[in-house]
Amino acid sequence: QVQLVESGGGLVQPGGSLRLSCAASGSGFSINAMGWYRQAPGKQRELVAGITSGGSTNYADSVKGRFTISRDNAKNTVYLQMNSLKPEDTAVYCCNARIVAGISEYDYWGQGTQVTVSS
Asked: Strand ranges (DSSP E) for the chain?
């Protein structure tokens, strides 16, 4: 059984920084792509940033230049460094991992962590 556990959310002032972490636990699997999504109240979930197993990254236009996604394959962990935070970044952030087990692939999701940007 694979579990994704997130940490690092919280309340921060505009212009501040936060770092989110998401660790995958379990055994007998490998991880393909990983990513961070967010959902604000009344809005659809959107992809914030993604990273492949080889380290290629992609970002939503709204966070380019401010957020950085990275991963530690040895620790099965993905990170999201968020700088210059804005009130519009306020949302529940969830990590996603494409898990490979045998010949099958599955999408797993973390429980979500609240990020609130407010003065």
From this structure: 3-7, 10-12, 18-25, 30-39, 46-51, 57-59, 67-72, 77-82, 91-101, 104-109, 113-117
